[in-house]
């Protein structure tokens, strides 16, 4: 379970990006954070992996508070899927998927694209699950289509069997026609492993289709929290 307790974030320029957000997300839930650009979704997600230092309040994962002392351990349980994929384009798909094992393998090992047999098996299983063949391992990530790159991003995210997956607008850079396919892959991979997903989106239809729950955000505040059925466009 992830618990946000009275979280606030004021950026150095005075922007109050998160305003007193309290939220509990149970294990295994696909929780959509829905809101327009600038609502604070990305800032909120980044509090769960230490990329954002809150101004006040706490994030607690399974009873352990996220802080400077605990973050190196907690971070291994939290993976991220990015809007712009964040792959190293000139490196192979293999090296990019292996990067999901950092810090369990050295950076040099990940960069080499050299797999231990058990890691190779896992990478191939994950690639198959996201619809890519082992032949893709040798391709440069930058040569793939956007949809294929995000599939690699998803495979990378699941390499360490994360308990939490932060998906920050995972389909915003993709052709809308494949948005559902990509969200379905994240949902199914998470479901199979009972991982919790915090997924930020700005599209109401996708939130309704994929969320077990919708948390609506606007101007840094939660303005709706409930089931997709209860969500109306006025929220
Ligand atoms: P969303 O993900 O919903 O688009 P963000 O969390 O990215 O929203 O941004 C929330 C607010 O915080 C916006 O006003 C944005 O400009 C601001 N913001 C985000 N990151 C920073 C930063 N590093 N420094 C200053 N302001 C930021
Ligand atoms: P992404 O689309 O990959 O989530 P963003 O465009 O939201 O990236 O933000 C990219 C980076 O710029 C982030 O580190 C974010 O914190 C920072 N950022 C966003 N808005 C602002 C802002 N108004 N001022 C300064 N930095 C910002």
From TrEMBL:
Q: Which CDD domains match?
A: ABC_PhnC_transporter
Entry GO terms, CC: plasma membrane
| UniProt-listed NCBIfam families | ABC_phnC
- Its name, as the record gives it, is Phosphonate transport system ATP-binding protein
GO MF annotation terms: ABC-type phosphonate transporter activity; ATP binding; ATP hydrolysis activity
Q: Which organism is it from?
A: Halomonas campaniensis
The record describes its membrane topology as:
Peripheral membrane protein
The organism's taxonomy opens as: Bacteria, Pseudomonadati, Pseudomonadota, Gammaproteobacteria, Oceanospirillales
**PROSITE patterns per UniProt:** ABC_TRANSPORTER_1, ABC_TRANSPORTER_2
Domain ABC transporter stretches: 2-235
- Where it mainly occurs, coarsely classed, is membrane
**Keyword tags:** ATP-binding, Cell membrane, Membrane, Nucleotide-binding, Translocase, Transport
Q: Where in the cell is it found?
A: Cell inner membrane
The source's domain of life comes to Bacteria
